[in-house]
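Obj.: predict assembly geometry.
Materials: sequence records (below).
Method: joint structure prediction, all chains together.
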Amino acid sequence: MRSIRTRLMKAAAAALMVGLALTACSGSSETDPPEGEAGAALPDDQQNLTFVPNYGWAGSDISKAPLEIGMNIALKQTLEPLVTLDNEAQPQPHLAESWEWTTPTTLEIKIREGVTFSDGTPLVSGDVKGTLERYLAQKQALHAVLSIITGIEAPDDSTVILTTSAPTGTLVGVLSLVLIGKGEFSHAEATAEDDEYWARPIGTGPFVITDYVPNDLFKFERNDSYWGEKAKLKTLTMKQITDANGKLTALSNNQAQAVQNVSYDQFETVEAIPDVTLEQFESLSYYFVWFMNDRAPLDNPDVRRAMWMALDLPTIVESLYGESREVMDSFCPAAAFGCVPAENMPTYDPEGAKKLLADAGYPDGFTVDIIFSLANATDNALAQALISGWKDIGVTVEPRGLDAASWLAAFTGMDWYMDFQPNQTPTGDADYTLNRLYSCAAARLGYCNPELDALMTQAQQESDPEVRLDLYQQVVNIMAEDTPAIPLFSTKVNVAYRDNVQGLTVPPTEFINFSTVYLTE
Amino acid sequence: MTAALPPMITTTPIATPTTATQTMQRARRARRGVKIRITVPIIIIGLYVIGAITVPVIYGFDPLRTELVDRLKPPGTTLSNGSIAFLGTDQIGQDLFAQMMMGARVSLAVGASTLIFAGLAGVTVGLLAGHFGGWMDTVLMRIADVQLAFPAILLAILLASVLGQGLTNIIIVLSIANWVVFARVTRSQVLALKNREFVEAGRALGAGHFHLIVRTLLPGCVAPILVVATVEFGHVILAEAALSFLGVGVPIGVPSLGSTIQAGTAYLTSAWWISTLPGIALAGLVLATGVLGDALRDFYDPTLRGA
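Observations (raw structure tokens):
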């Protein structure tokens, strides 16, 4: 069977090559370089790469959804943050040249000189001030961690001074998620021009957006006036393909040169495609189930715990995802600082779950719904596996698979009992995920525990790593007790790419930097 | 005059005994052909119906239950619980045969309900338009024309996206998309019938509109409506599968042939059976209804017999 498949693949590839030669779209596959040896870089006019990301984008205004992974992957090619995080999650200068806490609550940031937007206007402190004000005013996902900023000043063109309501060691890391746009189009009270600019921003990054089609594609062209090392690709296209088969077809016939997150079931198929490499990387992504904690019957911690105990997560993960995903022992991925194993995590015990439900007054179960985005291709099977587990303890869960935009609307509108989705800890620190999502102020899932809030605030302000770890141990223990959510598994990311793609690596945040990627013959 | 008679006699085929026998034989053969073309599809559809009703019960099939250790097993595999999945299992470990029969149940139920609703609406409209004529005919038939001018499947996708997923919604959507054919056929049949003697007689005896429509026109329309219904049945099943395939049909947890085929497309290279076998089952069912509809038309209208 394998040989038939290989032959079919080869036939398809051959047919496509003929097609490509006829239309002269791209001549890259005419001669394959000898194995194990990278050919010379293609001439500049052939440096065109199409990438299929794993995540969809519900829009193009990053300030309205600063944490959407798909939007970050796209817009980070054009807009840049003040700082970037290195592999140890330590902030490194980017648009900010340096920063200093002049008092425990005053952060002074020096803006890099000589940086210009792709239209030629120089980057000044007013741009940073305006952007931060817009982010704060949008009251979106980052609001909980940014709201400690009480004052933003720009005394001169190269200095920004932030004042915070309390000492906050993690603020600089959070700034790596704020992408700086133009100040003239960024105000607390957004105007129509502001929204228009942010929907298709002009930034300081290595690429310029040339086209954007909602739910379909982003097209970029190299920013030839980029302040850093210029991109090697002439054009970059990010094309959304949600169908798992379509992704692989695009890769095997060279429509796309790289696709992100091939599903585990397709590993074997990908490995059978000639001239394609599949590589896995560690990531800060994970999946969780959220409960609407203030909505009966899920307002009872015992009921939530029972829902957790109904799931045989090791079997689900092993069967559906093999080695590409791992069961979690904390509420954020183990790769992030402070995500220590909780000591009292519920485990699979359907009988115990039934007993908990009966004691809570639901001997015959109940009916709730679960929402999820259909943009994440392989989630249907997961939804069914979860629902099957809950059914075994007598709880009926109605699946509501929604397209990306409807899901986001339902999710932020809190129109659900349960939700499952991928999530990230892009700062690589537990504070980011736990404090942002589970504090009373976050008000994301109807969960509020003042004791937990106190511990998280303490951990946020503490600078001694040992003490912080100890505090987070208490935090995750309380959370395992309260069960506001079920962490399902952490994911590895993978990229399958054609062998002539060089320099493509996926950082744990999954925000791929395409400026170093290039194509060879 | 007299010279013209002999040729007239010779050209009339019934006059000679040999040609009369041939015609009889041909007619008998044609009738037998029609009977086979009616019986065989009915048996096939009957098997689907019996399978759809009994198989999920025998297998204890629960669409919400997953058996992850048994996922993606090829046809003929012995599963962890000792049973043999002779058509294999799908991506969440459900027995494909039971799932297909459950899907056939959904398809048949959607097909039947849609025919009832679309048929009732369409036939009523057709009877009214044909019987009363005038402005009522103009208004109703222009509405029908407007809808006919728009591709039915596009209309169905549009409506399904607005109404959302769900079995009831699919039935509503497909009923809206399919009433026109019934209305059109009924109206043309009524137009052909309404000047016939028995209708005239009823009218002369003082029968009211209701009596005329229900007792004289409707019985005369039954045959063509039955034919249309059979053909439409296949179309509706296909349309439901198409909607489910596109993700605007049945929700997760309600297997339909279309949604099973769709789920299997992600595994075409590694587990071909998930898409292929329900596809063959769907084709068989639709083909049977198509042949049946064609044969019924021949049965009711012998002049169209192909013999």
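Conclusions so far: The longest helix of chain B spans residues 17-59.
To do: check interface contacts against the pulldown list.
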